[in-house]
Design brief:
extended, 399 residues, mainly alpha
């Protein structure tokens, strides 16, 4: 019986170690794809989509398209303007001309591994649960650790199988002992041996490790999601389609959000701004007259008389992007001085029927941006990252 018990215990221990190693390998692969999504959101998403044209072409299938010519592709991503205007590379010039002569931003700070991760995610974006880094930044909300829990469940099944084998072995050995005229094993014998296994240092260490790891991971999941509202999409008192206004009709963001280059807030437009157009446009393609009637009521406009005859009422818009009180953010500094596009933080706003928080807007996400985005210092042609200009100083955002 001791021989059989040792064999079963050895099998359990080896299987557990194998599953643990598989988990590490699987998690490493997942992190590569997650890193690729994070880098894509930070560097590429303002101009590219995986499927469908944005400013630049769709990136789906780019790895297959440039198969065998990866070195050229990596050089193009790192320094496309140099390949066009300095090297006069024929393929680069042809790609530039095919895209309305819009030169892609150079990304010299991206390593080959970074580009590899981006391309890996572009090929298989569905394998990373989107939150939407908008990016999976340093502090992107962690999704349910499905791989870990699957492995944990597998280990549990293996434990049950090992215990079942122990009892089967004990039953068989007991039958043989009875046949040989020896005293058979009783439930007490088996229970005693099982108790001995559960007191084994390796088994206790393994179970303690699993419980602590699962608890720690869950604490990290909960803690990392505190104050992060990526994907938040509340219902507004008046339905407003950015897809229609900013997308189809190409109304400039600054027409409505006129404070974006002037101060801390981008400003929510007053109904007077809406009425500049909707005095004359009284029916919309999506909601007919229902939503426009709410604008009239809020502004005090009487469409029948063509005049403001009623008392205006405030529109109780629901705030979507809400930084914590201890973090300072100034739109003018980023848009007016840094020349950032709205889509850099807010995502493809021109495609949103209902606006939602696209990016993480967490501290790590901001720091990543400050380490990569370049701006020209006043009075100079040289470009510096925000980090090089003191943008990582704590007092910049917390004072």
């Amino acid at each position: 019986m001791d021989y059989f018990m040792k064999q079963q215990f050895s099998l359990f221990r080896r299987t557990f170690l194998l599953v643990f190693v598989m988990g590490i390998v699987s998690q490493s692969f997942s992190q590569d794809l997650a890193a690729g999504e994070k880098l894509f959101r930070q560097n590429c998403s303002s101009c590219h989509k995986v499927k469908g044209k944005l400013i630049g072409p769709a990136l789906a299938g780019v790895t297959e398209k440039y198969s065998g010519d990866e070195e050229w592709l990596y050089r193009w991503i790192k320094n496309s303007p140099g390949m066009i205007f300095q090297e006069k590379d024929e393929k680069a010039i042809a790609l530039w001309e095919a895209n309305n002569k819009l030169a892609m931003t150079a990304f010299p700070n991206l390593s080959d591994d970074d580009i590899t991760n981006i391309l890996a995610w572009v090929d298989k974006p569905e394998e990373v649960v989107a939150t939407t880094d908008g990016g999976v930044g340093v502090d992107a909300p962690i999704q349910d650790p499905q791989i870990f829990y699957a492995l944990l469940g597998l280990v549990g099944v293996l434990v049950l199988i090992a215990l079942l084998l122990v009892f089967i072995t004990a039953t068989l050995v007991s039958a043989v002992r009875s046949k040989d005229g020896k005293e058979p094993f009783t439930l007490g014998n088996v229970t005693e041996r099982f108790s001995g296994i559960m007191k084994n240092k390796f088994v206790l260490t393994a179970f303690t490790f699993l419980i602590l790891t699962a608890g720690t991971w869950q604490a990290i999941v909960v803690g990392r999601n505190v104050s992060l509202h990526q994907g938040y999409m509340p219902e507004q008192p008046i339905k407003f389609s950015h897809k229609l206004h900013a997308g189809q009709y190409e109304i400039n963001c600054e027409y409505c959000h006129s404070g974006v280059k002037k101060g801390k807030s981008a400003w929510i437009p007053s109904t007077n701004v809406c009425m500049n157009c909707h005095k004359y446009i009284q029916e919309g393609p999506n909601y007919g007259t229902e939503e426009i009637a709410k604008i009239y009521k809020a502004s005090g406009w009487n469409p029948d008389e063509g005049a403001y005859t009623n008392e205006p009422e405030p529109v109780e818009w629901v705030r979507i992007h809400n930084n914590p009180d201890h973090a300072y953010f100034n739109h003018a500094q980023h848009v007016g001085v840094g020349n950032l596009e709205c889509q850099t933080c807010h995502g493809p706003i021109q495609e949103m029927e209902v606006v939602y928080q696209y990016s993480v807007l967490g501290m790590g996400w901001c720091i990543d941006c400050h380490r990569q985005e370049k701006v020209k210092h006043l009075g100079e042609d040289t470009e510096y990252t925000v980090e090089e200009m003191g943008g990582l100083n704590c007092a910049r955002c917390h004072y």
